[in-house]
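Morning. Coffee machine broken again, so started the prediction first thing and wrote up yesterday's gels while waiting. Chain of 550 residues, entered below exactly as on the submission form.
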Amino acid sequence: MPGLATPPMSLGRLLAKVRRRAKLALTGEVATCFFDIDDRDLVSRLLAECGHEPLTGPPRAWAFANGRPTIGERLFELRDDLRTVFPLGLTPAQRGELFRWFCTHGEGCFGLEPADVLRRLFETDAAPDRGLVATYLVQPSWQSQWPDALTPAGWGRFKQGLAAEFGLRGRWFRRATLPPQPTASGELGVNAVGLFRYNSGLQQAAKDMVDALATAGVRLSLRDVPMPANWDGRPRTGFDGLERFPITIVNTGLDLAIPESYRLAGLHRRAGVYRIAVWFWELEQLPDAWRGRGADVDEIWAPTAFIAEAMKPLGKPVFPMLPSVCLPEFEPRSKAACGLDPDRFTFLFAFDMNSRLPRKNPLGLIEAFRLAFARSEPVELAIKVGEQDDRHSEWWSQLRRAAAAHGVTLLVRRLPRGELLSLMNAADAYVSLHRSEGLGLTMAEAMLLGKPAIATGYSGNLDFMTRENSWLVDWTPTAADPAMHAPPGTIWAEPSREHAAELMRQVVNQPRLAADRANRGRDELRALLAPAAAAQRMTSRLRAIAEARP
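Came back before lunch.
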């Protein structure tokens, strides 16, 4: 009757009612979902019960927006403290408590809103297992206690254990069933732990590795190590594998210790697994604080011979394992469309300021370029660098001053890989006067595009660059910059600006020589860095490991 207060409703009943009344676009659907006008009071009561402001604005203001179907899972991915306090937070048993905590304390955490978290809770609730599998995959203690939980034989024991430990009883729990689990056939099986959803060179390295293994028919269980920043927006599905196989390859940064990688991934380190680390590094020596990194692995795969030498002090067998570099399809674009001068011969260099300006040495490149060419000549140098942020302000000032003083084009933008390849393809040649590189990915990509490539004749790029397929710049040894946090006495290269200038003029003045050498480099790298070639290198070692194990 009008004027009578609405009777109280428990948080659990409110959530259940919202779930029934909300028009949800669950996994696999694409329709926009929102609460009807008649549901405004119901949702406002839910938010108020959880200590959140009530709904305001038009009915669609609190929508489960298309394109964000899994962002709510970030909460449980990145907060292992929440997984401890609310171990059943993705199930009907504790979803109300988790949602109340978020509305009271966690809004804005990782950019999440209440709708994001509710959607994730409703998605897991819609699964046959009612969120038990999603929880299991991020609870290392459960994985340890019930290692066969996600098998038909182990599911019942798993539920019995949960019932005993947490007192679970309700109808939802009794009816929770195990969904079909992925199966694959093949001679070899490998667990791969890496930064699969983190926009970075390490992501590309992990992807190229597993893609190459897949071409050889290797069975794969992929596990992502989530990072708060640079998330590429893909769901965890497909990157939530367990250590199913007897060999694991960990492909993360050397600065991330193996136990920390597993903790961040929510993954139990199963006993008896042979672990291989794939580590990139850019200097001849390792920081003293990292000398114990080898304790948690059985062997190390070094992407280049240069890295292999640096890894030897870790005390484990080190195998040079040149990775694959495969160019994805991209849309060719004109020079003008890429911000380059169509009437000039263009040298390009691309780097990220987070990779350290002293190591990448664009200032030396600018000086070498101006030694080679007068401003009146139809030649330009373009340097592509990621967008400026609050870090590295002094380096940014140095770069901008040098570029302005010498008439060099700065392309300050962050580009997806396809657009970066379009830019590299539009340029006439690529040049890097780095002081040290672990691999030198952009040099390899430019060569695969058939571009003349000039680079310092030092460090990881020498695994694929020779004086017959590219142009190598002379250098002298010098002390590494303290900004690299290297041990005292670490050296790197100081490339000769004069020799670099001579080689740049040669590329411009001898187009036939430049084309012939560039074509040779393209053909050699297509064979050397092909996924099939990398797969053969990796599977050969994996078979040797498998045969040597009891």
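The first helix runs from residue 11 to 21. Going to sketch it on the whiteboard this afternoon.
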